[in-house]
Amino acid sequence: MLIFLTACAFFTSLLAALLGQGGGMILMPLLALAVPAASLIPVHACIQLASNSSRLLFAWQDADKQLLQAFIPGCLLGALAMLPLLRGMDLHYLPVLMGAAILYLTWAKTPQLPAWLPAPFFLLGLAQGSIGMLIGATGPLGSALLLKRGLNRDQIVATNALLMVISHLVKLPLFSQLSPGWINFWPLILSAGIAAIAASYIGTRLRHHLPEQLFLRLFKILITLLALHMLLTSLLS
């Protein structure tokens, strides 16, 4: 299972480097095959931190860093506001919420924050900080807003990686209070993290040669099957 999940981390990180998003959403239900619900989000966050930070490093010059002054306070506030809810939640059923959210983000119209709203990236941080504590993978939430900012494809990929690095760094210490046992999965985190970094390097160099529409179709089919598996397994167990 370690080899399988390490390979999954490689290919999902490669997908994220090519498309700018989607890798974390696919990896979450795959990790759920072996990682218990209470440890799922922090283990996922560690692997995605390796994936996003390396993708950011390889395209640092393209990232819009000015957004951080609004995004970071919103992300912190959203995560802290969600912490009391998680303390009272039965984490066994967390995959049900994750699976349903992944299906929604895949097939429904992605929620968009109108550009005319005051401090839109503060609101994005608030949304990613709070929702990310519940479902882990929130990368698609920021894509529409980044497009409205007039960024090109490389800038969107790099900036989305930057925002997700902040989101994962905020989640990890908070989830460590709820489920300290996630650190026992360090062999998986280490091997999958190394694979994710290698995939980011390769994907950054292949990005311009990707038939995007084909990958998007395959992505939707795969993520739907995995999310349904996550949801049904949790409901029936």
Word description of this protein:
By secondary structure, the protein is an all-alpha fold. It is 75% helix and 0% strand. It has one domain. The chain is built from ten helices and no strands. It starts with a helix and ends with a helix.
Summarize the structure.
By secondary structure, the chain is an all-alpha fold.
What structural keywords apply?
single chain, 237 residues, globular, mainly alpha, 10 helices
| Multimer state | single chain
Number of helices: 10
Tell me the structural class: mainly alpha
Principal-axis shape: globular
Distance from first to last alpha carbon: 20 Å
Largest sheet report? none
Number of domains: 1
For the secondary structure, the number of strands is: 0
Strand percentage lies at: under 5%
Q: What is the string of SSEs from the N terminus onward? A: HHHHHHHHHH
Computed Rg: 16 Å
How are the secondary structure elements laid out?
Layout: H1 2-19, H2 23-31, H3 37-58, H4 68-87, H5 94-107, H6 120-135, H7 143-148, H8 153-178, H9 186-206, H10 212-236
